[in-house]
């Protein structure tokens, strides 16, 4: 659990956490209520980037454009792919908050 890792090793030693908002391996497993919200809180407390892998959940598959909107949790970065071109062309994308984008641009 992330809170225990941060407590034991220090949150400053964790750069980022990447999760699928809905686990797709072995089935479709939505997170327990409050899980993503708590993950966001822990990341914010320790300055850890929260990354959502939205390859499976992106582009309307959750009834909203992205799972982050469905769950009301804003990641710092999210990835998307298959749904970008309806799987007709191999393409993926990485989307970030303005703060993360500025960090990349400023070097």
UniProtKB/TrEMBL annotation:
<dbReference type="GO" id="GO:0009102">
    <property type="term" value="P:biotin biosynthetic process"/>
</dbReference>
<dbReference type="GO" id="GO:0004015">
    <property type="term" value="F:adenosylmethionine-8-amino-7-oxononanoate transaminase activity"/>
</dbReference>
<dbReference type="InterPro" id="IPR049704">
    <property type="entry name" value="Aminotrans_3_PPA_site"/>
</dbReference>
<keyword id="KW-0808">Transferase</keyword>
<protein>
    <submittedName>
        <fullName>Aspartate aminotransferase family protein</fullName>
        <ecNumber>2.6.1.18</ecNumber>
    </submittedName>
</protein>
<dbReference type="GO" id="GO:0016223">
    <property type="term" value="F:beta-alanine:pyruvate transaminase activity"/>
</dbReference>
<dbReference type="InterPro" id="IPR015424">
    <property type="entry name" value="PyrdxlP-dep_Trfase"/>
</dbReference>
<dbReference type="InterPro" id="IPR005814">
    <property type="entry name" value="Aminotrans_3"/>
</dbReference>
<dbReference type="Pfam" id="PF00202">
    <property type="entry name" value="Aminotran_3"/>
</dbReference>
<dbReference type="GO" id="GO:0030170">
    <property type="term" value="F:pyridoxal phosphate binding"/>
</dbReference>
<dbReference type="InterPro" id="IPR015421">
    <property type="entry name" value="PyrdxlP-dep_Trfase_major"/>
</dbReference>
<keyword id="KW-0032">Aminotransferase</keyword>
């Amino acid at each position: 659990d992330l809170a225990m890792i941060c407590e034991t090793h220090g949150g400053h030693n964790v750069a980022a956490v990447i999760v699928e908002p809905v686990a797709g391996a072995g089935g479709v497993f939505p997170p327990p209520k409050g899980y993503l919200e708590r993950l966001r809180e822990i990341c914010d407390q320790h300055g850890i980037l929260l990354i959502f892998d939205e390859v499976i959940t992106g582009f309307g598959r959750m009834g909203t454009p992205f799972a982050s909107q469905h769950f009301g949790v804003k990641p710092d970065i999210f990835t998307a792919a298959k749904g970008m071109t309806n799987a007709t062309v191999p393409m993926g994308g990485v989307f970030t908050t303005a703060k993360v984008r500025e960090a990349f641009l400023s070097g």
